[in-house]
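Progress against Task 2.4 (sequence-to-structure conversion) is shown through the following example record, which the project officer requested during the mid-term review.
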Amino acid sequence: MTDMTISYTDTDTKGWYAARRPNISGEGELTFSKVSPKLIIADHTAVPESMRGMGVARALAERLIADARAKGQRIVPLCPFVRAHAEKHREELADVIQW
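Structure tokens generated for the chain above:
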């Protein structure tokens, strides 16, 4: 979705992505915990009712995966949404998902 903006924020131990769309209230979010410089845990994905069905959760998961891949990190998919997405794309995500 080209009109979606995803921002990234992090601290020493946590990180999160927030997705926003113009003229739509609320924001989707995906949070993760940093276990080590090379291992993160996808904790939680939430999308408000106002953004449901717009591909927001998938866009957040794909951004997390792309960023982790670029940084040489592995993701433990604790979050049910990220886990389901990873299971659907198991082969292509084998390099980045830690089962």
